[in-house]
Structures
1.
Amino acid sequence: MADVLSQGEIDALLSALSTGEMDAEELKKEESEKKIKVYDFKRALRFSKDQIRSLTRIHENFARLLTTQLSAQLRTFVQISVASVDQLPYDEFIRSVPKMTLLNVFEPTPLDGRFVMEINPNVAYAMLDRMLGGQGKAVNKVETLTEIETKILSQLFQKKLDTFREAWESVVDMDPYMDELEVNPQFLQLVSPNETVVVISLSTVIGETSGMINICLPHVVIESILPKLSVHLWMQQKKKEREPIELESIKSNVKKASLDVVVELGKSQITIQEFLNLDRDDIIELDQLIEDPLLICVGEHPKFLGQPGKVKTKIAVQITDHMIEGGETNE
């Protein structure tokens, strides 16, 4: 990842150039010189940029689905978005996790291995407080979870996994289930310390409480489905064909839909003054002859031509021709 200058560093650089402390020509010379990039073999980048982009898309969808699900379940304002997607050694991820947090360890069947979802205690307790009828306040006492709190949180996290499965269904038919709920990351050993993992950080706001949800995906677990994360493969995949029974059901429901059918007897143009002077029994002359066919519109679109008539005691219109695109008839 390239270094990005902060606004303060940019201002300092511009100030140094304007005062003469730094020469622009020297900067150009340094830029033109061949630079050596240090490669850390302990931190091997095993995911391609294409795969990282695909993982980002999947979890952006997961964030949207989770926002909708939690908003309905907790009945409060919820906003979740992808903050970053990084690949790093598993050991580095574990060291970055707080000593006391909530670690939802789950198995993504049929994949062989385990994922972990680290949830900031502020976010988890805001959810718990809302589930128990509170206002969604965060109370950080993760080291003293009661059996009732553990049960409620486990059920809440399992529903998150259902949303996780839905977000991944375009890549793999996954059936994740919760394995354990851990609070100390030092007791959690998913893979070897040097194994590369992808960490997706989700910025989460629940009511007035904010925090992070981090999802750790080990490379060794998702290695078998990495070819499916190619954007080119996604574009080549055909849409799933509907079952015949499903198509018949859709057709049947569409046929029951109601449509407005309007028959135009004719049109006329009058001035505003003439319109204001209209009174009962006045006659408006239409610009259409009696022998001309009537225009029949379905919705707002002209579809047929017809002639007026009568069926028993009711006024009716007989369709005489079918309109094609552009307002022309089949003749």
2.
Amino acid sequence: MQELYLLILQGESDTLEFKKTITHPDRIARTMVSFANTRGGQILVGVQDDGTICGVDPDEEMYSLDKAIQLFCDPPVRVFYKEVEMEEGTVLKVIIPESATKPHLARVKENDWRGYVRVKDESVQTSKLVEKSLTLEPASESLEEKLDHQQERILELLKKYRKLTLKDFMHLANLSRQRAKRLLVYLVLQGHVRLHDKEKEPFYTLS
């Protein structure tokens, strides 16, 4: 019980979301997909946005969640349920591990499936660039360490130029296309950089 209070005090984040109840299976599917595609996370059903516990009927909520997984997630997301009895009512803890079979897509409307990742406390629609990178093997720790100064260089370039394209980064930071893509996707997923992919030529800015 104490553990759940402490978790709620942390507030919503890239790995935690509160839901009063599950009323829209399509919307909760986007949240579950975003956790599975990123670092995993938990949804606390029976907790309002401000952290107030209101409690739920866990069987009803699990029914809605299972429906969301089967009808609105492709491939279906793996979840674990844990019921926590609190003085204010029952909270259903929905645990979504990071997926080994990403990217997962969520159904937005008939025959329209889209990818989502978790950035800060929001489920953000991915671009094709991010979706492709999710299928890449994760970089080793030694490689991640080597990337640190390159990440800093990219952030410095964005501070200076405000907005840059992939080609700009390749030229200014002297990076291969694959390395530049990987670095930018990593920074987008971390919430440092924002991708604007609705333009004729996609570009990046600081978040």
3.
Amino acid sequence: MYHNVFAAAVLGLAIAIGLVTGGSYLKSAAIQWKSAERTVTVKGLAEREVRATLALWPLHFSVTGDALGEVQQRVNAQADIIRAFLADAGFKPDTITLTSPEVTDRFANSFGNQRPPSRYSAEATMLVRTEAIDAVKQAMPRVGELISQGVVLSPNYNYRTEFLFTELEEIKPEMIAAATADARKAAKQFAQDSGSRVGAIRSASQGYFSISDLDSYTPDIKRVRVVTTIDYALED
């Protein structure tokens, strides 16, 4: 009987110690979990204006004729005029390409008096692909010289001049660093207002880089933009 009472007392003491110890551990774990939730999420922005590094300048033209051979000759003649104009503007031959002409039989879907004066029309594009941005900007206002020589240029929006920035990889590291610094600045302000200090980065995600024209009048100047999202730990 005495042995059973003693065993029960020992068991009860062990359970009590276990509850105290377990309770202390659970309390510590709860504090650590709560501490882990003490973070602030901020966004950092970096922007930069850069000059375009590549120009695509299409000169789209059209000719008409009653025979396919005649149409081809006119395409070649106008292409020669455009090449001479571009050479005079300082563009090298390896920056100029001519697409194959697209020929349309305009009599195919017209009858009688509705038929146009010439049966065939052909369209082709002379494309200038160059890094000489200034040369393109200086030559573009001179296209009236081509019109005066009989070249029929198309105003089609599909053949607009494009200025591209192709050196994004070279400025990425600096811009990401700038966006991260901007995010940390915001986190420090938040920590200061809440009586804390900024700790280590818990997680971070980099947004997409965007490249847009500075405005509709200066498409050769680009605005590069990136936003980063960073979670910082807050410490006492």
